[in-house]
Design brief:
- This protein is α/β, with parallel strands linked by helices and 280 residues long.
- The protein is 31% helix and 22% strand.
- It has helices at residues 39-47, 67-75, 91-104, 123-130, 180-186, 198-208, 236-263; strands at residues 4-5, 24-32, 54-61, 81-86, 107-112, 118-119, 137-145, 151-155, 176-179, 213-224.
- Strands 1, 2, 3, 4, 5, 6, 7, 8, 9 and 10 form a ten-stranded mixed sheet that branches.
- Helix 6 (198-208) runs parallel beside helix 7 (236-263).
- The two termini are 16 Å apart.
């Protein structure tokens, strides 16, 4: 498949640790841990969107490198960035902390970006237009990109059907925009202590309680492909991958039980064991 030129390099921005305590249409959560190599570009890819109704939440998961200083420098003199610092607990706990702050800030919708990925120009325009319909979830397209995020392979949104039917077993949770009200009402969280597939567990549970959704061809982010990813290794690492899948599935089953008890949901997905948790 032909690769495309996907990113224009964003310009520099100045920065503030203060966040306006008003209503935000969108909160973008970037968790980071020792991410000094890529963090600046990830942050700038969000800031260049120039949306007055979005807040960027940076969650430092106990970094020991220069990434906290990078975040604080960019945040200086800005009113649309909030930095949260915690001891190292893992990416799931960092995302959960970001969700808590986003809800307190009054965000209507929440998006997630990994510290080594980047949002594409025009993403916010498409997202802000989409969320006017007030659905529970929106799926967008994305690129699987090379190391410097300059070229990539287009991956079309496909899990939410034209009639609104949602495939809960898809991947790429960061290509979705989630409604904060739904997350809060059903207490959907990332499974802390699960070492991998925690993002897909969150996505699956969220989609189990979503009633309306819509997909768009617009690509909103570049996912940095990592050839050393655990999903591409062999031997003992592959065994660890399957253990992580089991851990994630056990969490899903426990949470489906809770949702059934607390919200009387029909958790028929528990009997569906044909799905697979995997990264792109």
């Amino acid at each position: 498949m032909k690769e495309e030129n996907i990113l224009n390099y964003p310009k520099e921005y100045g920065a503030s640790l203060e966040v306006r305590r008003n209503y935000y249409d969108l909160a973008v959560i970037i968790p980071f841990y020792n991410a000094e190599r890529f963090l600046k570009r990830a942050i700038q890819s969000v800031l260049e969107q120039k949306s007055g109704k979005a807040v960027l939440i940076l969650v430092d998961d106990g970094s020991a490198d220069h990434s906290p200083a990078i975040a604080k420098e960019i945040a200086r003199d800005r009113d649309d960035i909030l930095i949260v610092t915690q001891v190292n607990k893992g990416v799931a706990a960092a995302r959960n902390a970001g969700i808590e702050v986003a809800i307190k800030a009054g965000a209507k919708y929440i998006g997630f970006l990994d510290s080594d990925d980047a949002w594409l120009k025009g993403a916010f325009i498409g997202i802000e237009s989409a969320i006017q319909s007030n659905k529970d979830v929106y799926e967008f397209s994305y690129y699987v990109a090379n190391e410097d995020l300059s070229r990539g392979r287009f991956v079309a949104a496909k899990e939410i059907q034209i009639d609104g039917t949602i495939n809960r077993w898809g991947v790429s949770f960061w290509a979705y925009i989630y409604k904060a009200e739904v997350i809060n009402r059903y207490s959907i969280k990332f499974p802390e202590g699960v070492k991998a597939n925690e993002d897909e567990a969150f996505r699956y549970l969220y989609l189990c309680v979503s009633n309306t959704g819509e997909r768009f061809d617009l690509p909103i982010l570049a996912y940095r492909s990592n050839p050393a990813s655990v999903t591409r290794r062999k031997g003992s690492d592959l065994l660890n991958k399957y253990k992580n899948v089991i851990d994630a599935w056990n969490y899903i089953e426990k949470e489906l039980d809770r949702l059934q008890r607390e919200h009387k949901l029909i958790a028929q997905e528990k009997s569906d064991e044909n799905g697979a948790l995997s990264h792109p």
